[in-house]
Amino acid sequence: MLRSHALIAAPGAEGALARLCRSCAAFGTARCHGMRGCADLPSGRCSLIACGGSLHLLCESPDAEALRRTEAEIAAHLAETLGAGAESPDWREAI
């Protein structure tokens, strides 16, 4: 399993997490409870944590191509839910 992570500035992170989960649910299965969530997408899974003014994202997929697709899907959902001024995730390898 390959993993990557990113930290995104998101004022009102708990509300942003709820919107992100709703957006992801249209393309897979997403669960949110309070400050934590998980999006199960066709290409992989992304664990979501709202903390203060940021979202912590941890994606995992079975191979490099699937991980890139998972990252791209999450980035697209973030842009949709956080608006045009939202920063793009800077994905980094995670262990």
Note the main sheet: 6 strands, antiparallel
Predict the CATH topology: TATA-Binding Protein
CATH class category name? Alpha Beta
Shape: globular
What is the tally of beta strands?
Answer: 6
Structurally, the number of domains stands at: 1
* Helical/strand content category: alpha+beta
User: Percent of residues in helical segments?
Assistant: 25-40%
- Separation of termini? 10 Å
Strand content: 35-45%
Strand arrangement in the largest pleated sheet: 2-3-4-5-1-6
In DSSP terms (H or I, runs of 4 or more residues), the helix count works out at: 2
Which radius of gyration do the C-alpha atoms yield? 12 Å
- Which parts are unreliable, with pLDDT below 50 for 5 consecutive residues or more? none
- The ordered string of helix (H) and strand (E) elements is EHEEEEHE
The average pLDDT score comes to: 92
CATH-defined architecture: 2-Layer Sandwich
Superfamily (CATH H level) name: Alpha-D-phosphohexomutase, C-terminal domain
